[in-house]
Amino acid sequence: MENYKMLNNVAVSENGFLFLPGTGESFTLNEIGRMILEYLKEGNSSNEIIEKIAGEYDVDETVAERDFNDFINQLKNFRIVDAI
Amino acid sequence: MSKKYYERPVIIKQHSGMMNKFGSSPSLPPITEVEGIPVKELTEKYGSPLFTFSERKIRDNQRKMLRIFKTRYPKVQFAWSYKTNYLGAICSVFHQEGSWAEVVSEFEYDKAKGLGVDGQHIIFNGPDKTEEALEKAVKDKAKIHIDHFDELYSLMEITERLNLKADVAIRVNMDTGIYPKWDRFGFNYENGEAAQALKRIAMNDNLNLIGLHTHIGTYIMSAEPYRQAVIVLVELANMLSKQYDIALDYIDVGGGLPSNNTLKGQYLDAEQILPTYEQYADAITAPLFDLNLKPDELPTLILESGRALIDDAGYLLSTVIGNKRLSNGKRTIIIDAGVNYLFTSHWFNHKIAPAQHSGSFTENSAVYGPLCMNIDVLREDIVLPTMRKGDQVVILYVGAYSVTQWMQFITLRPNVVMIMEDGSVEVIRESEKLENITSSEKVPEKLNSFSLK
Ligand SMILES: Cc1ncc(COP(=O)(O)O)c(C=O)c1O
Predict the structure, then answer these.
(1) Number of domains in chain A
(2) Which 3-state string (H, E, C) describes B73-129?
(3) pLDDT tens, position by position, for chain B (453 residues)?
(4) Which residue of B has its CA nearest to A73?
(5) Which of B146, B244, B352, B372 sits most deeply, having the most CB atoms within 10 A of its CB?
């Protein structure tokens, strides 16, 4: 499974507000979305992140993986993360 | 230990401040290169205008889409819709990614075979399959999707005469709540025609019923119609299994997923209003689990997505010929690519970005092509920076229905290149030459000479 890193210029606030200074675009995130970004920032691999989510939340790994992939695709489109 | 309540991760783009004070979107930032290669370099080498495709982007799109569906349903197969873009290089990228071929004419059928696709991996759709084409398809074991009763009767006659069996599906149309209804194609569900056709096929020894097909339209802007369509197909599949003990190999839901192009007359950008592909996939796959089948008997889900997979992999690079002011003061920019190359601009407001950095001053403009015709309008209203003769623009999302629907009109069609994954550039269709056009013309003897005074 591919791993991802956050692009440097991304700022995330504690209440889930994300700002891209480069383009002036802003986004809002829900709790899980914010956590995933947090885990990415810490350098976790995709598998580690999915495991953590499935460990902490009431969700099985397949669903967590599917949602993670969908979410990452959006982040890639918005140029917030990139594959490493 | 009880676990926390789970909600799928979401990110939403905020749009405040997107509109400028004139109420239109601001100019796109300059796009000076495509896949890392400067626009200038490409047009200097291959001419302007220039259609440019990205191999990487095509593969990316296909892989992403496959993953979206595969994470929701176990058996998924894509079939590349030839009419969307049948340049050999483009089709071959899709075939390398594992997609079958979806064709709607003998020409497309032969093209697929010419590229090396064997009959079993060709889906033969469309209302116009000649007897010769049907014979060929039967012999090749292609998957023939029957469109109407006359075609069904021809096929019965052909298979009997050849003493061969044919693998067939029928195309079904149904009311999915969208307008316009595409009920011209296939057998109607509501009036019982579909069930009747299935019965005829089930009772014929030469026809091997292996699938059900529908294609509900193109650029479908909501996911719900797909759900309705799949519910109908599932109902028919359950009927087949109960009444005739037929287990289908596949259910084919056609294409129609939108790309990021914005339709004319649509105020908001497509990207802001269209559902995500994931939402479409949810709507398409959820009803499949209502099939009365054991998990190992589940049919393959086939998708014939066209524009969604190729549109944003195609760019049209073009050069400014000149600027003008209309009598009402509006600025117009004339570029060297017209509606003859970009037929799709009749329906879509294609995005146009400047290809070089310029001042921050922008102005509402019209963009015209070079044809000597009033209809040659690429954009009526678009905010662009000042442009000089020789400056360039990049027209975005032009991979679908462009290089198939374009026409040779007034000018010759330009080169088409593909930027390969390794960064090299390959010409995948050479620009036309005068001889290409005149070689198929014939001038009657008596018209061979004239003298002008
Ligand atoms: C039978 C069939 N399948 C697939 C397609 C591809 O459609 P789209 O480009 O909208 O995905 C078409 C296009 O009209 C079609 O007629």
Answers:
(1) 1
(2) CCCEEEEEEHHHCCCHHHHHHHHHCCCEEEECCHHHHHHHHHCCCCHHHEEECCCCC
(3) 578 888 778 887 775 544 433 444 578 889 999 999 999 999 999 999 999 999 999 999 999 999 999 999 999 999 999 999 999 999 999 999 999 999 999 999 999 999 999 999 999 999 999 999 999 999 999 999 999 999 999 999 999 999 999 999 999 999 998 877 778 899 999 999 999 999 999 999 999 999 999 999 999 999 999 999 999 999 999 999 999 999 999 999 999 999 999 888 777 788 888 999 999 999 999 999 989 888 888 999 999 999 999 999 999 999 999 988 887 777 899 999 999 999 999 899 999 999 998 766 778 899 999 998 888 999 999 999 888 899 999 999 999 999 999 999 999 999 999 999 999 999 999 999 999 999 999 999 999 999 999
(4) B64
(5) B146
Number of DSSP helices (H) and strands (E) in chain A, helices first: 3, 5
Whether omega for the bond prior to residue B258 falls within 30 degrees of 0, making it cis, is: no
Residue A82 near chain B (CB below 8 Å): no
Domains of chain B in sequence order:
33-52+313-432 (2.40.37.10), 86-305 (3.20.20.10)
State the CB neighbour count (10 A cutoff) for residue B25. 15
Which residue ranges have their beta carbon within 6 Å of ligand 1? B 81, 83-84, 102, 125, 215, 218, 254-257, 304-308, 400
Residues recorded for chain B: 453
CB contact under 8 A, A27 and B13: yes
Element (H, E) at B387: none
Report yes or no: B80 and B313 within 8 Å, Cβ to Cβ.
no
Tokens (6 digits) for B35 = 């896949």
Q: Read out DSSP for B291-345?
A: SSS-GGGPPEEEE---HHHHGGGEEEEEEEEEEEE-TTS-EEEEES--TTT-GGG
ipTM, interface predicted TM-score of the complex: 0.95
Candidate of B58, B62, B84 to mutate for ligand 1, largest count of ligand atoms within 8 Å of Cβ:
B84
Task: Give residue A33's domain range.
Answer: 4-83
Nearest chain A residue to B1 by CA: give it: A56
Q: What are phi and psi of B229, to 5 degrees?
A: -65, -45
Contacts of B13 in chain A (CB under 8 A): 25-27, 78
CATH number of the domain that A73 lies in? 1.10.10.1150
Rounded distance from Cα B288 to ligand 1 centre (Å): 21
Lookup: tokens for B369: 């092509």
Phi, psi at residue B17, to the nearest 5°?
85, 0
Within B137-229, strands assigned E span 143-146, 166-173, 187-188, 207-213
- Give the residue from A70, A72, A79, A80 with the most B CB atoms within 10 Å of its CB, the best one to mutate: A70
Q: Distance from the CA of B277 to the center of ligand 1, in angstroms?
A: 16
Per the CB < 8 A criterion, the answer to whether A16 and A34 are in contact is yes
Can you tell me the distance from the alpha carbon of B349 to that of B448, in angstroms, rounded to the nearest whole number? Answer: 45
